[in-house]
Amino acid sequence: MCGVIGYVGKGASPEFFFLGLKRLEYRGYDSTGIAMVFDGKIHVQRAEGKLINLHEKLQHLPSRANIGIGHTRWATHGRPTEDNAHPHVSGHIALLHNGIIENYREIKNFLQEKKYVFLSDTDTEVAAHLLHYEFSLEQKNTSHNNILAMKNAILNVVKTIKGTFAFGIISSLIPDVLFTAKYASPIIIGLGENENYIASGMTALIDHTKKMIVLDDYELAILKQDSYEIFDFQGNKIEKNILSVDWSAQMLEKNGFSHFMLKEIFEQPEAVAQSLNSRIDPIDYHVFLEELGIKNTNVLLFEKIQIIACGTSFYAGLLAKFYLEKFCCLTVEVELASEYRYRYSTSNNKTLVIAVSQSGETIDTLQAIKVAKENNAQTIALVNVRGSSIGRICDDESIMHAGPEVGVASTKAFSAQVVSLLLLALGFAEKRKTISKETLSCNIDNLLKVSSYIEKTLKESDKINQISQKLVAEKSVLFIGRGPQWPIAMEGALKLKELSYIHAEGFAAGELKHGPIALIDENLYVICIAPKDAYYEKVYSNIHEIKSRGGKIIAIGFEGDKDLESISEHFIGISPCEEIILPFLTSAVLHLLAYWTALNKGCDVDQPRNLAKSVTVE
Ligand code: M6R
After folding, report:
1. Which of the listed residues 398, 410, 590, 607 should we mutate to test ligand 1's pocket, taking the one with most ligand atoms within 8 A of CB?
2. Is residue 470 annotated as a catalytic residue, yes or no?
3. Is any atom of ligand 1 closer than 6 Å to the C-beta of 365?
4. What are the pLDDT digits (tens) for 270-325?
5. Contact, 539 vs 558, CB < 8 A?
């Protein structure tokens, strides 16, 4: 959702803020803005739409300033217009915000009585005026110690507002201090040489520093050029760990690919290899749970597993359920985080709850894991971003090591999630003695082959591009699969709809007869995932049922499967392989199919409409 960048130091140009916001573009946004303090005044430029519109206005900002903030807004309250774009100004203060202020109406009434004039429809402008009001009071209380007055004013504001927030605040009265405070929305502090930064994600800062501090909820930071202080919301000073980030700026480049999504699809073999790296013993066949980040979880204690996640991460969880149940002989429930958090939860101290999230910031998953913690469940975060909110709140943080994922559509993170969950399944089963040495070794051997199988599958990209051209004009497409391929069918449908805006649904093939088969006619394409696994015969029968009703079949199956090829309008072959390898290959095919369909349809592949990479509001 909203992107935040802030700077205090020896001097930064408007281009600095612009490039920082560019790094956050993938998060999804619909208006932008920058504020800088120069010559005792606040200078603001804002624009509707994409960053390119803001670029045209950079010349109206000072060419350099010691302090400034920049923002990409994903509209919640008020349309994505220039007036509603952040930063918002109240007198000498400029403020930006990521989050939602729920009680903004009552605060607005109060401020209007105090004669504050509102120029936007946003909840955020309320925070800017309230801060200005509180600052004026605190100036008197603190004998005009402006830094202390601003600190106290921010503490008053965060106590008054209800909702979620990450604020970036500058003031022309304090032109060398950058303030930030957060609850539920992320803020990272970057520490440089004679300059310090804030941002909503590490990616905005890795061009400048690898030293970062992750601000926790209920924390406020005061940053100067050469120092920083962090306080809790009671005003007490606190010490924080400094992280050393291992991502590089180069990882955030397209490296010759036309889109981040295509690059990330082609990075799947490496993402899987990185997720496996140093976590298994391929000679004595053992899973190193500690290397997977499992340090505090009592693996022998839990009697049930719940996986909570959203979107693609949810489908990775549904797929993992097959293997966790099979290897660990445990009940595994997979829940949408947005439902879990509002429902009566049966979790208790005998439950292991695994939160799966690429970003580690998804608000629904974050709030759901809090429910599990209240019920004394053991909690593991499976995340891609070290130091994320979900990672820090759980008992254990397992990093999936996919590398930064910039495309809004999750691709390589999906593969890394699946392989990490499979490792957890094997590691738990080994420790709980529910798996034979033979099954363990066979599965470890198979996981080691996944990367090279994906590489072979990606060679089908051109063929998939050609087939995708058939889908461009479609209004609706169905996907079917059975067993582990059912979550893949849903993942394929999600990708197609989010990227190309074609309605798509993924069904368990066995469910067709219970309703969806009514949709089949000679105009409908059905993507049938039918590798020769334990479910093949059944899916093959389902395909015949579709065929006999005139449905147009695009099948994904084993190379050389002439029967399947002959009943399909189009056939995409994958190399015959063990069952545990299959989901990686069929998902790679469907990721490519969604990519090429969207591209051929002229859609914005990396930033589909209305979507955000990191969903930090409900
Ligand atoms: O960062 P998370 O894994 O928690 O994100 C969850 C979903 O928002 C995400 O997977 C979303 O569905 C993707 N756009 C799918 O491609």
Report:
1. 410
2. no
3. yes
4. 999 999 998 999 999 999 999 999 999 999 999 999 999 999 999 999 999 999 99
5. no
